[in-house]
Amino acid sequence: MITFKILEEEKKILHGTSLRESYAQSGSTRRYKKIDSDAPRLAKQRESFCNDIYDAKRGTFFLMKQVHGDAIYFLKNEDNDPMATREICADAIVTHLVERPVGVLTADCIPVLVFDPKLKICAAIHAGRKGSGLRIFYKTVRAMQKEYGCASKSLIAAIGPGICGACYEVEEDCLQAFKDNFDDWTRLAKRQTNGKFLLDLVQANREDALEAGILEDRLSLSGHCTACRTDMFYSYRKEGATGRLLTAAMLLTD
């Protein structure tokens, strides 16, 4: 899997994005076990997280029924059933619960992780074309502020691997949400000679984060394009029917 340096240094959260094929092994009978949060530099925790989370049964994860919208789900009940959570239509999940891994599945859409190290809150966001146009990243930060009192300047965020602006070509009728919700949508969509547009979802989410008040030095971009690197990642645009990448985060006990 790949991780983000900006989150690696945090002792109260584990995270990562699976590489191609790694999450496809989810039929494994291995199950998640408690991780010792006091292990030096979390090296053993990360190894255990990779082995026991990314190869775990699907029932381990708290995922949503992603519908390419801007709904946000708060996971607040420790007794919630992960399988029941998957019937909830939402594209962002936020929690304060420890040892409850939350995540999103993508194959070109932009996965985002947000962490409040002071209040110990984390979120996983699925920001596809529609969700990005509806500014789901910005709305998730605002929801975290309202629900938990998170301060934007305290947040750490990582934008994971997704399709880049040089690879994602769309028709103009796909841009209406960006025209409606971004002051200058032309920064994000460049017209091509064939009349179509190259849409930069990574930049859209970066701008969303900064406008929500996240500091630039607390925002990390993976720099990986799923369409350019199908050796590493799945890409729906490049491959058609394909697998999904899992981007997940889990809060640790004190």
TrEMBL record:
Keyword Hydrolase part of the UniProt annotation: yes
Keyword Phosphoprotein set for record: no
Pfam families listed in its UniProt record: Cu-oxidase_4 (PF02578)
Single annotated GO MF: hydrolase activity
Gene3D superfamilies, per the entry: CNF1/YfiH-like putative cysteine hydrolases
UniProt keywords, alphabetically: Hydrolase, Metal-binding, Transferase, Zinc
Catalysed reactions listed for this entry: inosine + phosphate = alpha-D-ribose 1-phosphate + hypoxanthine; adenosine + phosphate = alpha-D-ribose 1-phosphate + adenine; adenosine + H2O + H(+) = inosine + NH4(+); S-methyl-5'-thioadenosine + phosphate = 5-(methylsulfanyl)-alpha-D-ribose 1-phosphate + adenine
PANTHER family xrefs: PURINE NUCLEOSIDE PHOSPHORYLASE LACC1 (PTHR30616:SF2), UNCHARACTERIZED PROTEIN YFIH (PTHR30616)
Entry's family note: Belongs to the purine nucleoside phosphorylase YfiH/LACC1 family.
Name under which the protein is recorded: Purine nucleoside phosphorylase
Organism from which the protein derives: Candidatus Nitrohelix vancouverensis
Classification of source organism: Bacteria, Pseudomonadati, Nitrospinota/Tectimicrobiota group, Nitrospinota, Nitrospinia
